[in-house]
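Feature request, filed as a ticket because there's no other form

It would be nice if the structure record came with a short human-readable summary line next to the C-alpha coordinates. Right now we just get the raw output. Example of a typical job, pasted below so the devs can see what we mean:
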Amino acid sequence: METRIWKMPGDKPNLAMLKEAAQLLNQGEIIGFPTETVYGLGANALNEEAVKKIYKAKGRPDDNPLIVHICKIEHAKELVKEITPSALKLMENFWPGPLTLVLPKSELVPDIITAGLDTVAIRLPAHPVALKLIELAQVPVAAPSANISGKPSPTTAEHVWQDLKGKIAGIVDGGKAGVGVESTVLDMTGQIPIILRPGGTTREQLMEVIGEVRLDASLHDSQAAPRSPGMKYTHYSPEAEVIILKGTSHEQAGKIKKIIKENRAARVGFMISQELAAVLPKNLSQNIVLEILGRQGDLETITANLFDALRKFDQKNISVIYAESFPEINIGAALMNRLLKAAGGKKV
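Raw output as currently delivered:
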Protein backbone atom coordinates (compact mmCIF):
# COMPACT_ATOMS: atom_id res chain seq x y z
CA MET A 1 0.00 0.00 0.00
CA GLU A 2 1.24 3.49 -0.84
CA THR A 3 1.23 5.79 2.18
CA ARG A 4 0.52 9.40 1.30
CA ILE A 5 1.79 12.36 3.33
CA TRP A 6 -0.06 15.64 3.66
CA LYS A 7 2.18 18.32 5.19
CA MET A 8 0.34 21.12 6.93
CA PRO A 9 1.82 24.66 7.09
CA GLY A 10 2.90 24.51 10.75
CA ASP A 11 -0.02 23.31 12.83
CA LYS A 12 -2.57 25.13 10.64
CA PRO A 13 -5.12 23.03 8.75
CA ASN A 14 -4.91 22.91 4.95
CA LEU A 15 -8.52 22.27 3.94
CA ALA A 16 -7.81 20.73 0.55
CA MET A 17 -5.38 18.21 2.02
CA LEU A 18 -7.59 17.41 4.99
CA LYS A 19 -10.59 16.82 2.73
CA GLU A 20 -8.55 14.13 0.95
CA ALA A 21 -7.60 12.53 4.27
CA ALA A 22 -11.19 12.75 5.54
CA GLN A 23 -12.47 11.12 2.36
CA LEU A 24 -10.12 8.18 2.93
CA LEU A 25 -11.43 7.84 6.49
CA ASN A 26 -14.96 7.75 5.11
CA GLN A 27 -13.88 5.06 2.66
CA GLY A 28 -12.74 2.81 5.51
CA GLU A 29 -9.01 3.56 5.38
CA ILE A 30 -6.78 4.43 8.34
CA ILE A 31 -4.83 7.67 8.68
CA GLY A 32 -2.03 8.90 10.96
CA PHE A 33 -2.75 12.40 12.26
CA PRO A 34 -1.39 14.83 14.87
CA THR A 35 -2.90 15.59 18.25
CA GLU A 36 -1.50 17.75 21.03
CA THR A 37 -0.38 14.61 22.91
CA VAL A 38 1.08 12.16 20.34
CA TYR A 39 0.18 11.16 16.78
CA GLY A 40 -2.94 9.02 16.49
CA LEU A 41 -3.87 6.28 14.02
CA GLY A 42 -7.44 7.06 13.06
CA ALA A 43 -10.36 5.12 11.60
CA ASN A 44 -14.09 5.75 11.37
CA ALA A 45 -15.15 4.57 14.83
CA LEU A 46 -18.53 3.40 13.51
CA ASN A 47 -16.98 1.18 10.80
CA GLU A 48 -15.91 -2.16 12.29
CA GLU A 49 -13.90 -3.22 9.23
CA ALA A 50 -11.96 0.05 9.30
CA VAL A 51 -11.24 -0.34 13.02
CA LYS A 52 -9.91 -3.86 12.41
CA LYS A 53 -7.26 -2.27 10.17
CA ILE A 54 -5.93 -0.31 13.17
CA TYR A 55 -5.35 -3.50 15.14
CA LYS A 56 -3.70 -5.19 12.16
CA ALA A 57 -1.41 -2.28 11.23
CA LYS A 58 -0.22 -1.79 14.81
CA GLY A 59 -0.09 -5.45 15.79
CA ARG A 60 -2.29 -4.41 18.70
CA PRO A 61 -4.02 -7.03 20.89
CA ASP A 62 -7.75 -6.96 20.19
CA ASP A 63 -8.62 -6.95 23.90
CA ASN A 64 -7.07 -3.47 24.22
CA PRO A 65 -9.84 -0.80 23.89
CA LEU A 66 -9.51 2.28 21.68
CA ILE A 67 -10.16 5.94 22.45
CA VAL A 68 -12.79 7.69 20.34
CA HIS A 69 -12.00 11.26 19.26
CA ILE A 70 -14.68 13.87 18.60
CA CYS A 71 -14.58 17.54 17.58
CA LYS A 72 -17.48 18.97 19.65
CA ILE A 73 -18.68 18.27 23.21
CA GLU A 74 -22.24 17.65 22.03
CA HIS A 75 -21.05 14.72 19.90
CA ALA A 76 -20.28 12.80 23.11
CA LYS A 77 -24.02 12.56 23.80
CA GLU A 78 -24.46 10.16 20.87
CA LEU A 79 -21.74 7.81 22.12
CA VAL A 80 -22.67 7.44 25.81
CA LYS A 81 -25.79 6.58 27.79
CA GLU A 82 -25.43 9.49 30.19
CA ILE A 83 -23.17 12.45 30.88
CA THR A 84 -23.11 13.10 34.61
CA PRO A 85 -22.80 16.67 35.97
CA SER A 86 -19.20 16.02 37.05
CA ALA A 87 -18.30 14.61 33.61
CA LEU A 88 -19.86 17.65 31.95
CA LYS A 89 -17.88 19.93 34.26
CA LEU A 90 -14.66 18.21 33.22
CA MET A 91 -15.56 18.49 29.54
CA GLU A 92 -16.23 22.19 29.91
CA ASN A 93 -12.97 22.78 31.80
CA PHE A 94 -10.53 20.48 29.98
CA TRP A 95 -11.87 19.93 26.46
CA PRO A 96 -10.33 20.43 23.99
CA GLY A 97 -7.35 18.89 25.77
CA PRO A 98 -5.42 15.79 26.85
CA LEU A 99 -8.19 14.24 28.95
CA THR A 100 -10.07 11.03 28.07
CA LEU A 101 -13.28 10.22 29.94
CA VAL A 102 -14.57 6.67 30.38
CA LEU A 103 -18.38 6.56 30.40
CA PRO A 104 -21.14 3.95 29.83
CA LYS A 105 -21.37 3.43 26.06
CA SER A 106 -24.42 3.79 23.87
CA GLU A 107 -25.58 1.14 21.39
CA LEU A 108 -24.00 3.22 18.61
CA VAL A 109 -20.47 2.25 19.66
CA PRO A 110 -19.27 -1.07 18.16
CA ASP A 111 -17.93 -3.68 20.57
CA ILE A 112 -14.63 -3.78 18.68
CA ILE A 113 -13.90 -0.26 19.96
CA THR A 114 -14.43 -1.19 23.60
CA ALA A 115 -13.06 -4.76 23.52
CA GLY A 116 -16.49 -5.90 24.63
CA LEU A 117 -16.69 -3.61 27.66
CA ASP A 118 -19.86 -1.65 28.41
CA THR A 119 -17.88 1.60 28.63
CA VAL A 120 -16.27 3.82 26.01
CA ALA A 121 -13.28 6.17 26.27
CA ILE A 122 -13.83 9.57 24.61
CA ARG A 123 -11.78 12.69 24.18
CA LEU A 124 -11.81 15.98 22.30
CA PRO A 125 -8.23 16.76 21.20
CA ALA A 126 -6.70 20.24 21.32
CA HIS A 127 -4.97 20.26 17.94
CA PRO A 128 -6.46 22.37 15.14
CA VAL A 129 -5.52 19.83 12.45
CA ALA A 130 -7.09 16.92 14.35
CA LEU A 131 -10.26 18.90 15.04
CA LYS A 132 -10.67 19.95 11.41
CA LEU A 133 -9.99 16.41 10.14
CA ILE A 134 -12.69 14.97 12.43
CA GLU A 135 -15.09 17.76 11.47
CA LEU A 136 -14.58 17.12 7.76
CA ALA A 137 -14.95 13.36 8.16
CA GLN A 138 -18.23 13.93 10.05
CA VAL A 139 -17.69 10.75 12.09
CA PRO A 140 -16.12 9.98 15.46
CA VAL A 141 -12.55 8.78 14.96
CA ALA A 142 -11.09 5.84 16.89
CA ALA A 143 -7.38 6.42 17.37
CA PRO A 144 -4.67 4.81 19.47
CA SER A 145 -1.10 6.07 19.07
CA ALA A 146 0.23 5.68 15.52
CA ASN A 147 3.10 3.29 16.20
CA ILE A 148 3.85 -0.42 16.22
CA SER A 149 2.29 -1.76 19.41
CA GLY A 150 4.74 -1.74 22.31
CA LYS A 151 7.18 0.76 20.78
CA PRO A 152 7.65 4.40 21.86
CA SER A 153 4.68 6.52 20.87
CA PRO A 154 5.16 8.86 17.88
CA THR A 155 5.47 12.59 18.44
CA THR A 156 6.26 13.48 14.81
CA ALA A 157 4.99 12.39 11.40
CA GLU A 158 8.46 10.93 10.74
CA HIS A 159 7.99 8.55 13.66
CA VAL A 160 4.70 7.37 12.14
CA TRP A 161 6.38 6.89 8.77
CA GLN A 162 9.17 4.82 10.35
CA ASP A 163 6.65 2.42 11.91
CA LEU A 164 3.72 2.29 9.52
CA LYS A 165 4.74 3.25 5.98
CA GLY A 166 3.11 0.87 3.53
CA LYS A 167 0.58 -0.26 6.13
CA ILE A 168 -1.72 2.79 6.22
CA ALA A 169 -3.32 5.05 3.61
CA GLY A 170 -1.76 8.30 4.71
CA ILE A 171 -0.15 10.54 7.33
CA VAL A 172 -1.17 14.10 8.09
CA ASP A 173 2.00 15.97 9.12
CA GLY A 174 1.08 18.70 11.60
CA GLY A 175 4.48 19.19 13.22
CA LYS A 176 5.73 17.94 16.56
CA ALA A 177 3.18 17.01 19.23
CA GLY A 178 3.45 19.45 22.12
CA VAL A 179 2.58 17.42 25.23
CA GLY A 180 4.60 14.36 24.23
CA VAL A 181 2.68 11.73 26.24
CA GLU A 182 -0.84 10.43 25.79
CA SER A 183 -3.98 11.81 27.40
CA THR A 184 -5.01 11.13 30.98
CA VAL A 185 -7.69 8.41 31.09
CA LEU A 186 -10.27 9.04 33.82
CA ASP A 187 -12.95 6.49 34.74
CA MET A 188 -16.17 8.35 35.49
CA THR A 189 -18.40 5.31 36.05
CA GLY A 190 -18.08 5.12 39.84
CA GLN A 191 -18.81 7.49 42.69
CA ILE A 192 -15.21 8.71 42.79
CA PRO A 193 -13.33 9.30 39.49
CA ILE A 194 -10.28 7.06 39.03
CA ILE A 195 -7.22 7.80 36.90
CA LEU A 196 -6.56 4.68 34.83
CA ARG A 197 -3.63 6.24 32.97
CA PRO A 198 -1.78 9.43 33.96
CA GLY A 199 -1.23 11.80 31.07
CA GLY A 200 -1.33 15.37 29.83
CA THR A 201 -3.98 16.53 32.31
CA THR A 202 -2.66 16.16 35.85
CA ARG A 203 -4.39 14.77 38.90
CA GLU A 204 -3.80 18.11 40.61
CA GLN A 205 -5.66 19.95 37.85
CA LEU A 206 -8.60 17.54 37.99
CA MET A 207 -8.93 17.81 41.76
CA GLU A 208 -9.14 21.59 41.54
CA VAL A 209 -12.31 21.20 39.46
CA ILE A 210 -14.13 18.13 40.87
CA GLY A 211 -12.50 17.33 44.20
CA GLU A 212 -11.33 13.82 45.06
CA VAL A 213 -9.69 11.82 42.27
CA ARG A 214 -8.11 8.45 42.96
CA LEU A 215 -5.40 6.48 41.17
CA ASP A 216 -6.11 3.02 39.78
CA ALA A 217 -4.50 0.30 41.89
CA SER A 218 -2.35 -0.86 38.96
CA LEU A 219 -0.46 2.45 38.96
CA HIS A 220 1.14 1.72 42.33
CA ASP A 221 0.71 -2.08 42.59
CA SER A 222 2.43 -4.15 39.90
CA GLN A 223 0.25 -7.16 40.77
CA ALA A 224 -3.04 -5.34 40.05
CA ALA A 225 -4.57 -5.70 36.58
CA PRO A 226 -4.53 -2.42 34.61
CA ARG A 227 -7.82 -1.23 33.09
CA SER A 228 -6.74 1.31 30.50
CA PRO A 229 -5.39 1.47 26.94
CA GLY A 230 -1.61 1.56 27.00
CA MET A 231 -1.33 0.15 30.52
CA LYS A 232 -2.06 -3.56 30.06
CA TYR A 233 0.88 -4.59 27.88
CA THR A 234 4.58 -3.73 27.66
CA HIS A 235 4.72 -0.31 26.12
CA TYR A 236 6.94 2.55 25.01
CA SER A 237 10.01 0.27 24.72
CA PRO A 238 12.98 0.92 22.41
CA GLU A 239 15.16 -1.93 21.17
CA ALA A 240 17.68 -1.42 23.98
CA GLU A 241 17.12 -2.36 27.60
CA VAL A 242 16.00 0.61 29.72
CA ILE A 243 17.04 0.99 33.37
CA ILE A 244 15.89 3.84 35.62
CA LEU A 245 18.36 5.47 37.99
CA LYS A 246 17.14 5.85 41.57
CA GLY A 247 18.12 8.30 44.30
CA THR A 248 18.76 12.01 44.58
CA SER A 249 20.16 13.97 41.65
CA HIS A 250 23.60 13.81 43.28
CA GLU A 251 23.32 10.04 43.77
CA GLN A 252 22.20 9.52 40.18
CA ALA A 253 25.15 11.58 38.91
CA GLY A 254 27.49 9.35 40.92
CA LYS A 255 25.97 6.21 39.44
CA ILE A 256 26.34 7.58 35.90
CA LYS A 257 30.01 8.43 36.48
CA LYS A 258 30.63 4.91 37.81
CA ILE A 259 28.89 3.30 34.82
CA ILE A 260 30.93 5.43 32.41
CA LYS A 261 34.18 4.61 34.21
CA GLU A 262 33.50 0.87 34.25
CA ASN A 263 32.17 0.64 30.70
CA ARG A 264 34.66 -0.89 28.28
CA ALA A 265 33.03 -1.80 24.99
CA ALA A 266 29.24 -1.68 25.13
CA ARG A 267 27.32 1.18 23.55
CA VAL A 268 25.56 2.80 26.51
CA GLY A 269 22.98 5.57 26.41
CA PHE A 270 21.98 8.08 29.07
CA MET A 271 18.69 9.95 28.95
CA ILE A 272 19.19 12.80 31.39
CA SER A 273 18.62 16.44 32.30
CA GLN A 274 20.90 19.37 31.50
CA GLU A 275 21.96 19.46 35.13
CA LEU A 276 23.22 15.86 35.18
CA ALA A 277 24.90 16.27 31.80
CA ALA A 278 26.81 19.28 33.14
CA VAL A 279 28.59 17.26 35.86
CA LEU A 280 29.77 14.45 33.57
CA PRO A 281 33.33 14.23 32.21
CA LYS A 282 33.84 16.44 29.17
CA ASN A 283 35.61 13.92 26.93
CA LEU A 284 33.31 10.92 26.80
CA SER A 285 34.16 7.88 24.67
CA GLN A 286 32.26 7.19 21.47
CA ASN A 287 30.53 4.32 23.26
CA ILE A 288 28.65 6.81 25.47
CA VAL A 289 25.59 8.48 23.93
CA LEU A 290 23.71 11.27 25.71
CA GLU A 291 20.16 12.43 25.04
CA ILE A 292 19.49 15.58 27.05
CA LEU A 293 15.77 16.03 27.73
CA GLY A 294 15.74 19.51 29.27
CA ARG A 295 16.12 21.25 32.63
CA GLN A 296 15.13 19.41 35.81
CA GLY A 297 12.72 22.19 36.73
CA ASP A 298 10.94 22.01 33.35
CA LEU A 299 9.14 18.67 33.45
CA GLU A 300 6.87 19.71 30.57
CA THR A 301 9.82 19.96 28.17
CA ILE A 302 11.40 16.77 29.50
CA THR A 303 8.10 14.94 28.98
CA ALA A 304 7.66 16.35 25.48
CA ASN A 305 11.12 15.05 24.50
CA LEU A 306 10.85 11.58 26.08
CA PHE A 307 9.56 9.43 23.21
CA ASP A 308 11.71 11.16 20.60
CA ALA A 309 14.81 10.44 22.71
CA LEU A 310 13.88 6.77 23.09
CA ARG A 311 13.48 6.47 19.33
CA LYS A 312 16.84 8.15 18.67
CA PHE A 313 18.61 5.47 20.70
CA ASP A 314 17.18 2.84 18.34
CA GLN A 315 19.15 4.45 15.52
CA LYS A 316 22.44 4.38 17.41
CA ASN A 317 22.94 0.66 18.19
CA ILE A 318 22.66 1.16 21.95
CA SER A 319 22.68 -1.93 24.18
CA VAL A 320 21.35 -0.34 27.37
CA ILE A 321 19.79 3.02 28.27
CA TYR A 322 20.03 4.53 31.75
CA ALA A 323 17.29 7.06 32.41
CA GLU A 324 17.25 9.77 35.05
CA SER A 325 14.24 9.66 37.38
CA PHE A 326 12.11 12.70 38.11
CA PRO A 327 9.59 13.82 40.77
CA GLU A 328 6.15 12.24 40.28
CA ILE A 329 4.24 15.48 40.65
CA ASN A 330 2.01 17.16 38.07
CA ILE A 331 3.11 16.05 34.57
CA GLY A 332 5.97 14.14 36.23
CA ALA A 333 3.48 11.40 37.14
CA ALA A 334 2.84 10.67 33.45
CA LEU A 335 6.55 11.02 32.63
CA MET A 336 7.63 8.47 35.22
CA ASN A 337 4.73 6.16 34.34
CA ARG A 338 5.99 5.97 30.74
CA LEU A 339 9.59 5.53 31.83
CA LEU A 340 8.67 2.69 34.17
CA LYS A 341 6.68 0.98 31.40
CA ALA A 342 9.60 1.37 28.97
CA ALA A 343 11.96 -0.11 31.58
CA GLY A 344 9.62 -2.91 32.59
CA GLY A 345 10.05 -1.59 36.14
CA LYS A 346 13.86 -2.10 36.15
CA LYS A 347 15.75 0.31 38.46
CA VAL A 348 19.26 0.67 39.79
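Something like this underneath would help us a lot:
The chain is about 35% helix and 15% strand.
The two ends are 44 Å apart (CA to CA).
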